Amino acid sequence: MKAEKISTFDSIKALEDRFQLATYKKMPVAAEAGAGVWVYASDGEKFLDLYGGHAVAGTGHCHPHVVAAIVEQAEKLLFYSNLVYSQKRARAAEKLVSLAPSTLTRSFFCNSGTEANENAMRMARMATGREKIITFSGSFHGRTADAISATALGKYRELGKPNVPGHLFAEFGDIESVKKLADETVAGIMLEPIQSMAGVCMAEPDFYKALRELATERGIILIYDEVQTGIGRTGEWFFAGSAAGGRVVPDIVTLAKSLGSGVPVGACLVTEEIAAHIKENDLGTTFGGGMLAMAAVTATLEAIENDGMLENVKEVESYLRERLSEIPQIKRVRGLGLLLGIEFKEKAAPVHEKLLERRIITGTSSDANVLRLLPPLCLKREEADLFVEALRTVFSF
Ligand SMILES: Cc1ncc(COP(=O)(O)O)c(C=O)c1O
C-alpha cells in the first residue's frame, strides 16, 4: 500500500491489523501528534488524554524541554553501551538518586518495567543467597518469565507457563498472610504499593510499615514496583518514603513508564547494602543506559521540577476529588495523586466508551466497576472540568 493511501483512520487500521499481531484491543483512534494533555488523531480530532498512553506521558505529550534534550542528543550520539562512560548517563543517575529517598543511592538502567522487576528479583536473590519471592493477590509485574510468574492478576501467570519456580502469593493488605510465607528461604517481597491494574488498590500505612519490619527482621529484601507510582505520579517523587506509605523505604525501587516521557527506559534504585552484592557482569543489558534514554530521563526529571508538577498533582487531585463527589453514580475514588480509580455503582467499560465518543481517553482495570485515570502530571483544573462535565453528560442519558 502506498503512503498516501493510509492517511484515513480506516486505512491505517487495516494496515496495522494486517501486519501486526492482534495482541491489544485498540481504541478507534490513530494517534498522530500530542501536546501536553492533548492527543491529535489522524483525522484531525483532538482527544483529552487522561490515560497518558499507559501512564507513560507523565510530563505530558512532547514536553518542549524533553523534546529539545532528545533532539540535541540524537544529533550528537544516539547510543553507546555501558562499556564506556557517558556524561549523560552520569547526570541521569545522579539526578535520579538525588530525588530518591536517601538510602537508595545506586541505579541500574534497563529498558522496561518488566526488565527492572526481573533485575530487582535477581538482586534480592544475589543479596540473600535465597530463591523465593513473595508477591501479592492482584499484582501485575510484567510479562517476561520471572515477572509474569510473580504476577497474580488475571490470566497472565497462566500465559507464562511453565512458570519460574519459587513464587509465593500473599494477600495484599494482610500482613498475617505474608508472615506465614516469609521463612528463611524467601529472598524478596515485591509489591506495587498501589496496585494499578487491579483497580487502583491501596493498603493502610500500617501494612507497609509492618512489611518493612518483617522484611528487616527476617533478612528479606523489600522491593517496591514503582513502575506506575514513581516519578511524581502520586504527588511525591516516589511512593517510597511518602506519608501515605508510612514513610517506609524499601531496599529496591523499580521504575519505567514515565521515567523517559516515552523514550523506553527502566531503572532499579538500590541501597548500598544491595549494591555491595552486585559484581561486574552480574547484571547487564545492551540498551540500558544509552545516551538518548539518559537525556530523556534527566530532561523528564527537570521538566517535572521546573514546572512544579508535584504540587500540581496534589492540587488537581483534591480539586478532581471534590468535583467527582458531585456525581451520584460514583461510589468512591481510590488511589493517590493522579493515579486514580473511580469506582462506579455500575460497570465502567460503557462509561469509558461513552467518554471516548466525547474524545476523552481513560483506562479501565481488572475491577469491572473501576475507571482508571493516569493523566499527565500537568493536567489543569480546566481540563479536569472537561472530564467531569463529560461524565455528567454520560450519566444524563
Ligand atoms: C506495576 C507495573 N509493573 C510492571 C509493568 C511492566 O512494565 P513494562 O510494560 O514496561 O514491561 C507494568 C506495566 O503495565 C506495571 O504497571
Would you kindly provide a written description of the structure presented here, covering whatever features stand out?
- By secondary structure, this protein is of the alpha/beta class.
- It has a domain at 64-306: Aspartate Aminotransferase, domain 2.
- Helices cover 37% and strands 18% of the residues.
- The protein is built from 14 helices and 16 strands.
- It has helices spanning 9-19, 52-55, 64-76, 87-99, 113-128, 145-149, 156-159, 175-181, 205-217, 272-275, 291-306, 309-324, 349-357, 381-396; strands at residues 31-35, 38-41, 46-49, 106-110, 132-136, 167-170, 186-191, 194-195, 201-202, 221-225, 252-255, 266-270, 330-336, 339-344, 360-361, 370-373.
- The strands form four sheets. It has a seven-stranded mixed sheet with strand order 4-12-11-10-7-5-6, with helices on both faces. It has a four-stranded mixed sheet with strand order 1-2-3-15.
- A hairpin with a 2-residue loop joins β1 and β2.
- The longest helix is centred in the first third of the chain and has 16 residues, at 113-128.
- It binds pyridoxal-5'-phosphate (PLP).
- Residues 112-114, 117, 140-142, 192, 196-197, 225, 227-228, 256 line the site of pyridoxal-5'-phosphate.
- Residues 112-114, 117, 140-142, 192, 196-197, 225, 227-228, 256 line the site of pyridoxal-5'-phosphate (PLP).
Gap from first CA to last CA: 42 Å
> What name is given to the CATH topology of one domain?
Aspartate Aminotransferase, domain 2
β-strand amount: 15-25%
Rg, rounded, reads 21 Å
Mean pLDDT across all amino acids: 97
Largest sheet: 7 strands, mixed
Query: Which percent range fits the helix content?
Result: 25-40%
